[in-house]
Amino acid sequence: MSRIVHFEIPAEKPEQIAEFYKKTLGWDILKWSGPVDYWLVGTGPEDKPGINGGIARKQDRPSSGILVTAEVVSVDEALILIVASGGSIVVPKQAIPGVGWQAHFRDPEGNVIGLLEYNPGAK
After folding, report:
1. Which is it for strands 52-57 and 4-11: parallel, antiparallel or unpaired?
2. N or C: which end of the chain has fewer CB within 10 A?
């Protein structure tokens, strides 16, 4: 079973939307030090149910709307099952350095969902 482990909010002005969510919902938001502009969002203490997420520039995303990401054991195997079941690949497997492998797919109804395979050695 794959759980939702991350969400991503698209923004034309990520710095401004980060301030909005800090003020309105009290989220902790920090700019990621990785190779792309990305803001990490902490929504609450780790010992409480919930998920954390991120803010990405709209032009860096393949779809509009909030993206949820499900953890999988293998992105490769998940994509094979998705395509065989009528879905399609939107963003092929790619590395998030120090985190793992990701991909995005479109389900048969047109919804875009992310996949994440944790693997800190991904490059």
Report:
1. parallel
2. N
Supply 16's token pair. 């401004």
Q: For the whole model, what pTM was predicted?
A: 0.86
Tens of pLDDT, residues 33-43: 988 899 999 99
Q: How far is CA 5 from CA 55, 84, 92, in A?
A: 15, 24, 19
Tens of pLDDT along 102-122? 999 999 989 999 999 999 999
Do 82 and 57 have their domain in common?
A: no
| CATH number of domain containing 22 | 3.10.180.10
**Whole domain around residue 116: which residue ranges?**
72-123
Other CB atoms within a 10 A radius of the CB of residue 41 amount to 22
Q: Which residues contact 81 (CB under 8 A, 6 or more apart)?
A: none
How many other CB atoms sit within 10 Å of the CB of residue 59? 7
